[in-house]
Amino acid sequence: MAWQPSAAVLEDLMVAALAADDTGHVVYANAAATALFGSCPDDLVGTQLRERLFEDANRGAVDEVTARVLAGASWSGELPVLCSGEHVRELVTSWSPAYDGAGRVAGVLLLAEDTEHARILTRRLHRLSHVSTNLLAARTVQDVARVVTDEMTDAAGATVGSISLVVDDESLALVAIKGGATGAASRWASYPRSSRTPAADCLRNRRALVLNGRAAIAARYPDLERAAEGERSIVCLPLVVGDRELGAISMSFPGRRRFNAPELVFLTLLSEMCAHAIDRIQAQASADDRESKLAFLADATVRLSGDLDYEATLSAVAAAAVPWFADWCVILIADDGRLRPIAFAHADTGHAGLVERLQTDYPQPPDAYASPAQVLHTGRSVLVPEITDEMLEGRARDEEHLRLLRAVAPRSMMSCPLTAGDRVLGVITWVAGEDSRRFDADDLAFGEDLARRAAIAIDNAQLHSELRDVALRLQHAVLPERLPALPDWETAVVYQPSGRTDAGGDFYDVIALGGGRIAAFVGDVMGRGVQAASVMAQMRSAIRTLVALDPAPAAVMTGLDVVFDRLDLEHLVTIAYAVADPAAGTMQLISAGHPPPLLVRTDGTVEVVEHTQTMLLGAGGGARNVVTVPFAAGDTALLFTDGLVERRGEDTEEGMERLVRAARRLDRADLDAWLVAVVDGVRDPTRDDDVAALAVRRPAPPVPAR
Q: Which of 415, 475, 524, 606 could form a disulfide with 429 if both were Cys (CB 3.0 to 4.6 A apart)?
């Protein structure tokens, strides 16, 4: 875009500025040019530039430079110039084209100053360049603060420099100070944006504030500390980018100092560079913070949804939040109307004991503002962006309490309810210390999001725990505490639940039929929990009822199919059912999709009783065959669920071979001990599934004494 000279821009410059049209006639002169070259503007405006300011010997050079500029180029250099029309001085000159509204070169703009002013400008430009380089390299707000209090203060010639940044809509915080009065850093650690202070005023008005002399300072700010005795001057510069107010820079100078326009332009440029550096850093920090929060929420969600032990999981979540998000984190669960701590983490292990002592020795009253009890009662979050020392004094009950509060140094906190539906399950509290973040609305939104996810996990875990307890009670009520004592029979059972806490669906029983006969069965309901336990109870009850009507294997299985159809059961169920008749010396076996039973003969041989037809219960449209095998005195039948022989990533035949080897190898003198040894030696060490194993044996007749 073409540049045009503006009187508003040029008038306040300490550098002499002249504008001439394309014929060489002066059309404008600022105050500095009038002072340097003539007594009033009329002495300059309307005159020929080359004749008014240059001697004959130098007019050729002027013509050459003018032609170059009118062609659109610029030139800088030293030339001898007539000052006030009387004496010649060597000045540093800068020649630039001036444009009209259509973008065409319409004349020449000449800036001139003596070499001393040029040296001052050069020094300022060097300082500006140095400060600019360091601000570009700054990676944190503290880096910018060091540039302000050290380099910018020195570059401006100030003896005291400070920078305050916006905390929120209500407050400013002193980030750094150099050369200030004793106690200034503590007093102004946080102060209202509405306060009558130089920094707050200049930021509120969004323009530089200049006060020359102690009298002017005292008249406007009577409560301001004195950095030193004697005359002082103050300059405050707002840190603003676009419509965003970021903070303010304050500098104090010795003596009554008047700041000319170039000096204020210089300081304004420095403050603008600081503002842009802070804006860049805050934007990057905000982006990094959002990314970290999203990653944290994703990780926390996986943890919370993947483990029903919510107390251990929440402890891990609290530990992960420290010290990245807060200096300490406390999670409390409502238990019979009282809050019970289940997770606590602190960045400083030395302070952890102090925090615990505060909670035990000085519990907060239930109605205290921002207390966990208040958050639990109201179900609303509380955010305290800045905790002042006055707040600590107001909260302390005695000197020891105040000492502990100051020792842990809380400077910002927020508490969020753990809400699931219309129930508040607990409270999670984060506290930041002296050098940590100050929580804001974005942090509160993150905290509430995490609290909601934690509450859902707690609610699900508690609900699962209740359902699990119901299922376990149902399972224990259905499964026999012990097998019945049957004349002329030995029985043994091993039931080992998986490593999970849910109730499983394995079931078993032995029933006396009369005449020495017995019925034995082992079944497995696919799935876990209340529904599986309920189906298991229905199956066991139905089997006992059907056995009372007709214990024949085919009749029992047909009856179970009818039960499935009538009850509309959706769970898959497998079962192995056997009837042993000692008088006939046989055992009849039938299977509905169940692993084949084992027969261990008196001589130690092991047979796997395979069925050619094993239709699942309720499947319909198929058949099952009854297998009749010899079952003599001393023989043992082993019925079991698939958890005994199946392992993840392994073929079931390998598990069956392992079971056959164990059954053949072990001594069967004590049936209970034998069965325990078989199960322990064969089942999956990971205990990924329940195991039910039932053994029945006809004792061998005693050997006659010789």
A: 415
